[in-house]
Specification:
This protein is mainly α. It has helices spanning 3-14, 18-26, 30-38, 45-69. InterPro entries: YdiL_sf (IPR027910).
Length: 70
Amino acid sequence: MTIEQLGQAGRLLYGDQWQSALARALDVDNRTVRRWASGESAIKDAIRDEITELLTTNQKEIGEYLADNA
């Protein structure tokens, strides 16, 4: 996962203030997410997979909401 992909995923999930919310969702320290976002630390494959799962769950929930409220 690139820095750009991390930022895009974070904004899609949590809006402009995504870093703290993503840290809570992944159960990691805020500083860890900031290090990923700056490129200071690499994003492990397991974290990428967790972020993908968050996006998939979010997409499913949005789809269900839209289907129920259209």
